[in-house]
């Protein structure tokens, strides 16, 4: 006993590196692996039992990976992703057996986490544990850091969010509303547009696929111009936004999803507006802002407990259904943050 | 007497609006105007005798003017520009007869300045008065604000300046060297490149016209990458710089001179590096930083008095030679800040 014997470790493995969005056939379930439920002697790793795994829009391959990028899919390796787990054994002084944690893990029942820098202990369990894959985890921190730290928002400002229906965009919009901003989002379907307005309290939303002239659309929704642009899209949308920014506007660049699969990115032509309007445009990664996590919880937990922020999940059950859940995310199949329940303990 | 009678006011007038760089034939000298050397009763304008006028690279026309732009050339109106003058009469409580001032004026002997927000009193006359058209005036303030406020420089950082031979670029490079940065500039001729290195103390400089692959050139001069880019050029240069920025780099966008005369600006394709490298890219106008002028003088005056900063002027004599001086600026005819001596008092 005492974890020295090996147990079976069900896994979702990638067949190969991938390019672009994953297909179900890029992954397969394996029951061949075993694992010792004990960290190696002298190591400061943490062994977790995975409870929830997160399906995130960045869990994909890219034609031109950069040194900063994480490889989510590698040949015959478990898919990499964020998750929530229970510590079964720990060689790390900050984590002990029984702790609940969230951070980067793998798509399998048990994971030996050796990179513990981005692992957070979960102290508040009066909210659903699954929230730590989303609104209280990495996507939540991304929205929080991007909005409060990079956008420098002020009450009454005009905020535009592209790809607003994503886990990050939804939360940025709600944080902006709570601050007293005017908030408009763009999304890719009528249903998403309606949900942004009716459920998440956006002042306006539009379907970018139905707008032939993005500049005209933005002028319609922002006759006074845009103070803050939360950028998830890039390309033509960014060019149209630049034409509509107000003096001393801010653009937080979270991602540029419209550009990832192009052989060559689209050129952005209106950058002189950075000078005309004295705009600050800033790229960011959530990892640089992890030190703000306690402050983030102080802000978010009351909002969630008081029902001031709306949050929807789509939970698939069982590791075997994880590939379909991930693929469904990219086809826009589900409403709400997509995640997988691996074990209920 | 007492200025109530009108005196002759020699002027350099524009024939029409212009598009792009001015030609000598776009301007003409007129001796027809007269002016009362007194501000109108009840006005808070300031009447100045112009002593020096500045030739600046932005003194040109543009195909697509924006609301923020100043019109330097308008039909049968004096050319607009920066200058140094002596106050002959004032309705403004902050300026009195006899004061020396610098700010926006017109290309004529006497100017009634009604917009006094950007007019500065000159207190230090142990340095040449002409310096207030350049290193101690608007271009100096542009370099100072752009470098210290927008670039957030630190000792030892790697700084790249495009169009480095301009009045602003020269000073940014010298301020960066004084802070202990490694400084490389690009310019458009062999002579300019040599002067940047030998006179202004740049660590390296290169002629962008001789580089077929700007990315390769930057990798040669910045094997460790670029922390700070002082952007005057835009287009292809910006795209190459983005590929070479270091983590948490800063780009101060002062101008994009390569783009002004294009029917459509070039597209910039590498903006995803803003995210990969968490870069802050920020446009600025010197006018937003005018409140820093006293601090600026505190920094610059000692550097000038102690000879720690090098500064070269090219002074044309007489209003009648102003059009040729301005045109010469655009053809890169002269070395040094180009200005016109209108009157020695």
UniProtKB/TrEMBL annotation, chains A, B:
<dbReference type="Pfam" id="PF16884">
    <property type="entry name" value="ADH_N_2"/>
</dbReference>
<dbReference type="InterPro" id="IPR045010">
    <property type="entry name" value="MDR_fam"/>
</dbReference>
<dbReference type="Pfam" id="PF00107">
    <property type="entry name" value="ADH_zinc_N"/>
</dbReference>
<dbReference type="GO" id="GO:0032440">
    <property type="term" value="F:2-alkenal reductase [NAD(P)H] activity"/>
</dbReference>
<keyword id="KW-0560">Oxidoreductase</keyword>
<feature type="domain" description="Enoyl reductase (ER)">
    <location>
        <begin position="46"/>
        <end position="340"/>
    </location>
</feature>
<dbReference type="InterPro" id="IPR011032">
    <property type="entry name" value="GroES-like_sf"/>
</dbReference>
<protein>
    <submittedName>
        <fullName>NADP-dependent alkenal double bond reductase P1</fullName>
    </submittedName>
</protein>
<dbReference type="InterPro" id="IPR036291">
    <property type="entry name" value="NAD(P)-bd_dom_sf"/>
</dbReference>
<dbReference type="InterPro" id="IPR013149">
    <property type="entry name" value="ADH-like_C"/>
</dbReference>
<dbReference type="InterPro" id="IPR020843">
    <property type="entry name" value="ER"/>
</dbReference>
<dbReference type="InterPro" id="IPR041694">
    <property type="entry name" value="ADH_N_2"/>
</dbReference>
